[in-house]
Amino acid sequence: MEEPGSIRPGGRTARVRAAVLRAAGDALAEHGFARLDLTDVARRAEVGKTTVYRRWGTVTGLVADLLTDMAEQSLPRARTGSLEGDLRANARLVRRTLTDPRQGALFHAIIAAAACDARTAAALHRFYDTRIREWAPCVEEAIDRGELPKGTDAHEVVRAVSAPLYYRMLASGDPLDEASADRAAKAAVLAARAGAYVKAG
User: Fold this and answer.
1) What pLDDT band is residue 183 in, cutting at 50, 70 and 90?
2) Residue 96 to residues 76, 101, 178: CA-CA distances in angstroms?
3) For residue 109, which of 17, 32, 49, 140 is within the disulfide window of CB 3.0 to 4.6 Å?
């Protein structure tokens, strides 16, 4: 079953969707999930509230569509010709996103909501699955070039790049600078070359 608002529309419907999702992102970044209100989103987007309620139905339905849109709009993966170059580009993209005043606040709000709302958690998991699948081929290409052992789990390598960056944002509060992004990428490359992510069996 499709999540509310998840059908890709065209024309005026596309413009309404874009306006509503932009308004929802602004409201989330400003006030968090707990204060997200469909009527307020409709007001911000300058559309009728019945339109918002009819298309998205619930706050979680709206957040799910927002995450779908964010995944679709994210930059495509880098192609630098080397695994470390590709993963460094990935780490720097994650770092820029998490430190952006709007995007960082938006992710904080969504991650907090996902901790206590199953539908938001499912939408967040789909978002990250989309992004990991976008970047996994850079690891698969490195395996084909002989840079990594056969059987390396490409998805685990990509996850290993971003995990330390999210830890800094959500748990430790340590600086989330470019050096930490580059270090996360290098650590993932070294571990992958050592066989740490080869699938068991």
Assistant:
1) very high
2) 15, 10, 9
3) 32
Query: How far is Cα 114 from Cα 59, in angstroms, rounded to an integer?
Result: 12
Nearest to 83 by CA among 133, 158, 153, 150: 158
Q: Given CA atoms 123, 184, 151, 143 in this order, what sign does their dihedral have?
A: positive
Tokens 């050096």, located at residue:
179
Q: How many CB atoms lie within 10 A of CB 98?
A: 19
Residues 104 and 186 in one domain: yes
CB 197 within 8 A of CB 139: no
pTM of the model: 0.83
Shortest CA distance to 83 belongs to which of 25, 33, 145, 125?
A: 145
Residue at 23 is within a domain = yes
The whole-chain average pLDDT of the chain stands at: 90
Dump the DSSP string for 17-76.
Answer: HHHHHHHHHHHHHHH-GGG--HHHHHHHHTS-HHHHHHHH-SHHHHHHHHHHHHHHHSPP
Backbone angles phi, psi at 52, to 5 degrees: -65, -45
The token pair that represents 193 in the structure block? 């070359």
**N-term to C-term CA, the chain:** 35
Q: What is the arithmetic mean of pLDDT over 9-24?
A: 86
189 and 139 share a domain?
Answer: yes
For 195, left (φ over 0), alpha (ψ -120 to 50), or beta?
A: left
Structure tokens at 140: 């698969």
